[in-house]
Specification:
Two copies of one chain form a homodimer.
Chain A (H helix, E strand, L loop, with lengths): L1 H58 L2 E7 L4 E5 L4 H29 L4 H34 L14 H32 L3
């Protein structure tokens, strides 16, 4: 008799156990996608600030040396180097895109299971990442050259003379690399959110 | 009586119509994902060849000028410029990754609805794209400098002397940009394949 009582008790417990578990797991899935979407929005705001800071820092990089000859004053500005000009333009485009992408990120929070905004975000984020990385890598190549020069090509470093210029440019490059890292993370989040399960 | 006959005939036709339509659409969906996966594999093979060509071209870029002084022979090699060294290493890593990713692409063809390999591919492809773009952009900044020099920083172009060197390096950069474009396309394909529908 104890066995008879036991077996129904067990199966009913199992049945009771599974039903709430499934409900809980679907609830958790929705919450998980929503959590990813909120995380996406927060990271995106951070990326906007970082990309804007990179563009603004590089865009205001110039230095005039305090001494001058009769005919010439020594001055270095970001637009002396085409790579730094490209950097400013590219980072400005990335910042603009990130601001415009905020509404889509909010839509993804409201409707965590909609794939349309996610798909749009992942594709455009990848393009923005490419642009951002190109700007950062090209600028770092030039900053390294300005810092160390290259003896083989007979290019001398200019950071001995224009120290502040180089420091500001380096800061902008670091900011753009951080923005690229955040964008890479955003793409991973979008890919996880696009998954079927 | 004609009305009685018409109505059942219509509904049965509708019922007959819907059932095969649903079956056909699920079949088309599977085929669409399989088609994307096959396209992915073909593009990936193309990217392997392009990335390898970029690495090999840059890695064999050197030029010795046919004249020399008593003490010095003029020579330019890719490893005189750290950016070009980085380019060779980065493109070799990208090629290696692309070769290793081929089995996952084949798994995605065999099981078009599995999200695991797709998710892995999209994340690692994004990392590879970042590396590839960084190498290409940094190299293009240096190639531009070698071609045109920069009067503000007093860096003179070296392509007047080392013409073949510059041409080979430019070719490698072009190949790496093509590889980056293919990788971008692969990510879009993976994102489309990851969609729920």
């Amino acid at each position: 008799m104890s066995a008879r009582v036991d077996i129904p008790a067990d199966t009913s417990a199992a049945a009771k156990g599974t039903a709430p578990l499934i409900a809980a797991s679907t609830h958790v899935k929705g919450g998980y996608k929503k959590g990813l979407a909120i995380f996406d929005l927060v990271l995106r705001l951070g990326a906007v600030v970082t990309a804007l800071a990179a563009a603004a820092t590089m865009g205001t990089t110039d230095q005039t040396l305090p001494f001058f000859t009769q005919f010439f004053q020594f001055q270095a500005s970001y637009d002396d180097l085409p790579t730094f000009q490209f950097f400013v333009i590219a980072m400005a485009i990335v910042s603009g895109y990130l601001v415009l992408s905020l509404p889509f990120s909010i839509v993804a929070i409201i409707r965590p299971h909609a794939t349309g905004p996610r798909l749009l975000l992942i594709i455009l984020d990848t393009v923005a990442l490419t642009l951002n990385t190109a700007a950062a890598a090209a600028a770092v190549a030039i900053v390294d050259l300005a810092q160390n020069g290259n003896s083989s090509a007979n290019w001398l470093g200019i950071c001995q003379q224009f120290g502040d210029f180089c420091q500001k440019a380096s800061g902008a490059v670091v900011a753009s690399f951080i923005a690229a890292g955040v964008l890479l993370f955003l793409i991973v989040i979008s890919a996880l959110a696009l998954r079927k399960r």
